[in-house]
Design a protein that fits this description.
7 helices; alpha/beta; six-stranded mixed β-sheet; Ribose5P_isomerase_typA_subgr; 30% helix; 15 strands; four-stranded antiparallel β-sheet
């Protein structure tokens, strides 16, 4: 099976967690783009009363096009369930996210939710964060270069400003993304604390101790991992 088929395997399990009347946090990325039409079916075919809070303008556009009621994060007092993808998942269910450039809004919504479920295919499982994917860090455009230099000096690594063709990627918040190489020796908790206190950094792509459940599509079928208490 290709990665698209592996992602499709996770959808039924994800949908099973959605109950009538919920306020949903709807993530960003290729797996979630497959899930959004299934959420729409719950409304149109089963009559579910659902509201969505989206982690990106792209997801919001897709959801609205399928007649999913969308509300702003500041207009809700709770989110029952957030469902999102990931770029990497380590054995402790810690994540790297931000491949779609939406890491800040994803973290706001995923942390706020009572339950956070991550969907992914087996290629996203890693031994340590940074094994296959660089860490995205969202930074202000004003001093992005100075921030990049500080990161390179601290971790002895390479940092690139994310580009789309020849143009810097601009997030929904109007910022840049720095993609930072990591090694097995970098502790995610210490690295996050260093990065988040740099002037100009809005948020990092480390999602630590947030996931409640991971639903993974594999060649052997769907595997479900729960966060250890």
């Amino acid at each position: 099976m290709d990665t698209q088929q592996l992602k499709m395997l996770t959808l039924d399990d994800a949908v099973a967690h959605i109950k009538d009347g919920m306020t949903l946090g709807i993530g960003t990325g290729s797996t979630i783009e497959l899930l959004v039409p299934e959420i729409a079916k719950l409304i149109s075919e089963k009559g579910y009363r659902l509201k969505g809070v989206c982690t990106s303008e792209r997801t919001e556009y897709q959801a609205k096009s399928l007649n999913i009621p969308i509300v702003h994060i500041n207009d809700v007092t709770h989110i029952d369930l957030a469902i999102d993808g990931a770029d990497e998942i380590d054995p402790q269910l810690n994540l790297i996210k931000g491949g779609g450039g939406a890491l800040f809004r994803e973290k706001v919504i995923d942390e706020f939710a009572e339950t956070f479920i991550v969907l992914a295919d087996q290629t996203k499982l890693v031994d340590y964060l940074g094994q296959t994917f660089k860490l995205p860090v969202e930074v202000d455009r004003f001093n992005w270069y100075q921030v990049a230099q500080k990161i390179e000096q601290r971790f002895q690594t390479s940092v690139q400003r994310r580009m789309v063709e020849d143009t810097p990627l601009i997030t929904d918040n109007g910022n840049y993304i720095l993609d930072c190489g990591l090694t097995v020796h970098i502790d995610p908790y210490e690295a996050h604390e260093f990065l988040i206190h740099l002037t100009g950094v809005l948020e990092t792509g480390y999602f630590l101790d947030i996931v409640d459940k991971a639903i993974i599509g594999t060649e052997q079928g769907v595997k479900v991992f729960h966060q250890s208490l």
